[in-house]
Automatic annotation (TrEMBL):
Protein name: BTB domain-containing protein
SMART domains: BTB (SM00225)
Source organism, top-level taxon: Eukaryota
GO cellular component term of the entry, any: nucleus
SUPFAM superfamilies per UniProt: POZ domain
Organism: Anopheles maculatus
Amino acid sequence: MCKGFHSLQRDGQMVDVTIAAGGKIFKAHKLVLSVCSPYFQKIFLEHPSQHPILFMTDVNSHHMAGLLDFMYSGQVNVKYEDLPNFLKVAEALQVKGLHGEVGSLPARTRWR
């Protein structure tokens, strides 16, 4: 089922939220974002909208793309030097599975 959502997201099908971050536009599914992040879930519950547009002013496009990859596939490739900032954004957005320090991440995490 996760692969199905990721495929739909990549193809822009049945998406119901638009995210603007770092000058780029990302399409996603509220359901996936809500399951992966209490932050997004709260936004969608407190401000119901058929197709909300979220402006993430403090998130760069690389971080947003990586977070979406992780939420849809459970994997993300992040350059080692970018990891601390990436994890700060993940923590601020409460992305499940990406909280904590580098040392607390699963051993299978790969760096690029």
